[in-house]
Give the backbone structure.
Amino acid sequence: MVRTLLLAPPGAGKGTQGERLAAHYGVPHLAAGDQLRGHVADGTPLGAQAHGYMDRGELVPDDLVVRLILDLLGGDASRDGFVLDGFPRTLPQAEQAHSWGLANDRALDAVVSLLVPEDELVRRLLERGRESGRSDDNDETIRKRLKVYNDQTAPLLDYYRQRGILHEVEGTGPVEDVTSRIIDEIDAALQQR
Ligand code: AMP
């Protein structure tokens, strides 16, 4: 049983590693960006509200995202653990998620930060844009998303460091090696629980 969060800039491998960790631990992978893209594709009211922000590389307002993700985390599927990716992304989101987690017996065990140099992030995102056609993987929006990460999400590293649950892992090199490093960190954290 593990409740973990992958906290890293766009292009660091949260989605790929999130899938692999979820399979390893047998828990659901919950990616805020995937959930939001699903709402946009389905044309829901939430999707309609979110999609302009996403296309511009800005964050969707906190209240919309917090409600969406905490509702999902509160469901039965996440009762025995989860791998979260892409949420929380702002301090108000982190604070709300933290209080909610304590109140609902779903507090995080470990937060994993993936370390990848910025030029590598840009290279990977441009490549993903060419391959997948994701509309926000273009040069201008990539720069914007990296800035948003540095300004609004990077402060969460200290937030979780102060709570003693932050684990920094080298995010470059073969995918399997990164996964093993993350699993070692999470397992060590679970041992100390
Ligand atoms: P991602 O797939 O994680 O790169 O997310 C894609 C886009 O979805 C982001 O650029 C934001 O516009 C939006 N998004 C994802 N997660 C969040 C969040 N926790 N808070 C606000 N916006 C988010």
User: Anything to note?
Assistant: The longest strand covers residues 2-7.
